[in-house]
């Protein structure tokens, strides 16, 4: 629908930006931190850095938070590294880890920036992985205990909690993210068992949060992007339904209603991936209710009918956002109406509005966008300037679509794009940059790691200061 005027962003809208611990902090083995599955990787894609130093946020968080405050952030979404808090995942608590996040939270609150905490963003403790990781039910208990430690130590100051970042991407594209255990014998079957365990762990954490912190709010944080049918051909429509059910709704139906949707279940049955569900699991899943839905959105996806000849699954160069497919289920398709970014990801701001509407229609819960952004090869120019107009353009178009969705009646309470500051990409190194703040380093030369405000820094500052009003005049 078109409108004569668009609704304003709500007062107290949480403008901010996001990072994750392993991609920004560095200090991978300092102050008692244990290794995560990311630290334990024996190789990284050719020509890309490891995560040992990253943006050195661990040592420079005060300077970084001051810059976030200068941009006017109302919120900052970051993750806590499980291995800083409990180095081996289920053993002793590391006081130094508690201290670091406690200080970070205090620093944010000093500037009235609302901390939004992701409890687990891809970096499972490697000690747990060695014991079978999410294939073991013991990891559910370990996560519940870890949650308890977080709520006990930070619950007095943190009001917004996110359980697991992009669980759906870990299940569907774990090899791109470095989270897939290469030793799994029947990876897909095993992954859906792990998926079930993670969902139970999430439900337990949500219940615990509500018991321990009645004032706090908690929700899931999957990557949700509406799937289009490649054409109006009825078979393409069914393919889009299939992929939507498996990629998107499986995760949100479980988080909100505690049930496997029928298509996802039929898919797992057909493929032989159904998980073992223990007595009591479904009750736990049904008892847990999120207070909101957080989701990440970068691009939409398009699906056509499967050819059924084994050719649907295409190599995507191990990228979580490029098209793929699955025999008998759907076949990934390009969308001729969309432009692509430097990495082949389709850019679809209108699809963002549709995604917001669809999620809200299905679940009727407040929404917050916890990632959205443009990865690009930024260039540091003379006098410490970075002219990232392409990023401003991308963000502007997406923020406008949030405003359309708000006018449609969708309850959106925050926008936290990726990323607050340059950090290391999941599998494309540090040259693929997303931040409002440039970090002066290359893949293998750490240089001086100094912070430089990009053009988008000043632009976003205006957006926040005007509560989005400035976009109307541009
Ligand atoms: C999401 C992850 C982030 C982030 C982002 C950008 O899938 O939650 O951790 O990295 O994608 O992706 P990439 O780093 O692959 O460019």
UniProtKB/TrEMBL annotation:
GO molecular function: 6-phospho-beta-glucosidase activity
Keyword Hydrolase applies: yes
PROSITE patterns documented for this protein: GLYCOSYL_HYDROL_F1_1, GLYCOSYL_HYDROL_F1_2
Superkingdom of the source species: Bacteria
Enzyme class at the top of the EC tree: hydrolase
Residues at the active site: 371
Span list, region Disordered: 306-333
The enzyme's E.C. designation: 3.2.1.86
Catalytic activity: 6-phospho-beta-D-glucosyl-(1->4)-D-glucose + H2O = D-glucose 6-phosphate + D-glucose
Organism: Bacillus inaquosorum KCTC 13429
Basic and acidic residues composition-biased segments: 309-329
Record key words, sorted: Glycosidase, Hydrolase
Family listed: Belongs to the glycosyl hydrolase 1 family.
Protein name: 6-phospho-beta-glucosidase
Family matches, as InterPro entries: GH, GH_1_N_CS, Glyco_hydro_1, Glyco_hydro_1_AS
A biological process term (GO) from this entry: carbohydrate catabolic process
PANTHER family: ARYL-PHOSPHO-BETA-D-GLUCOSIDASE BGLC, GLYCOSYL HYDROLASE
Gene3D superfamilies: Glycosidases
GO cellular component: cytosol
């Amino acid at each position: 629908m078109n409108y004569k005027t668009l609704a304003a962003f709500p007062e107290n809208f949480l403008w901010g930006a996001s990072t994750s611990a392993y991609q920004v902090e560095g200090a991978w083995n300092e102050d008692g931190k244990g290794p995560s599955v990311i630290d334990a990787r024996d190789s990284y894609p050719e020509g890309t850095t490891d995560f040992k130093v990253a943006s050195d946020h661990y040592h420079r968080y005060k300077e970084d938070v001051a810059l976030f405050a200068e941009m006017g952030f109302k919120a900052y979404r970051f993750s806590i590294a499980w291995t800083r808090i409990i180095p081996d995942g289920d053993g002793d608590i590391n006081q130094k880890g508690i201290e670091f996040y406690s200080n970070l939270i205090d620093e944010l609150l000093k500037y009235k920036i609302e901390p939004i905490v992701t409890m687990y963003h891809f970096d499972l403790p490697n000690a747990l992985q060695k014991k079978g990781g999410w294939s073991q039910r013991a990891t559910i208990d370990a996560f519940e205990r870890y949650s308890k430690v977080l709520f006990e130590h930070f619950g007095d100051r943190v009001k917004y909690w996110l359980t697991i970042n992009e669980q759906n991407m870990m299940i569907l594209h774990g090899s791109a993210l470095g989270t897939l255990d290469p030793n799994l014998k029947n990876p897909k079957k095993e992954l859906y068992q792990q998926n079930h365990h993670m969902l139970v762990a999430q439900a337990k954490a949500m219940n615990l949060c509500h018991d321990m912190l009645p004032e706090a709010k908690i929700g899931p944080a999957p990557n949700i992007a509406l799937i289009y049918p490649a054409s109006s051909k009825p078979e393409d429509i069914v393919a889009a339904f299939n992929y939507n059910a498996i990629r998107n709704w499986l995760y949100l139906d479980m988080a909100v209603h505690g049930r496997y949707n029928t298509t996802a279940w039929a898919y797992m049955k057909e493929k032989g991936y159904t998980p073992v569900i223990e007595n009591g699991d479904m009750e736990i899943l049904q008892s847990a209710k999120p207070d909101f839905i957080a989701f990440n959105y970068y691009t939409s996806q398009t699906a056509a009918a499967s050819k059924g000849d084994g050719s649907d699954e295409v190599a995507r160069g191990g990228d979580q956002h490029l098209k793929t497919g699955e025999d008998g289920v759907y076949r990934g398709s390009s969308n001729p109406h969309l432009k692509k970014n430097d990495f082949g990801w389709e850019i679809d701001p209108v699809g963002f509005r549709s995604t917001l509407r669809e999620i809200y229609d299905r679940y009727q819960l407040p929404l917050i966008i916890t990632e959205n952004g443009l990865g690009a090869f930024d260039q540091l120019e003379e006098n410490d300037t970075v002219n990232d107009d392409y990023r401003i353009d991308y963000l502007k178009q997406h923020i406008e679509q949030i405003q359309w969705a708000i006018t449609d009646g969708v309850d959106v309470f925050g926008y936290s794009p990726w990323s607050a500051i340059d950090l290391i990409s999941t599998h494309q190194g540090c040259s693929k940059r997303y931040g409002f703040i440039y970090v002066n380093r290359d893949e293998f030369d750490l240089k001086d790691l100094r912070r430089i405000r990009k053009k988008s820094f000043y632009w976003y500052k205006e957006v926040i200061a005007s509560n989005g009003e400035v976009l109307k005049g541009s």
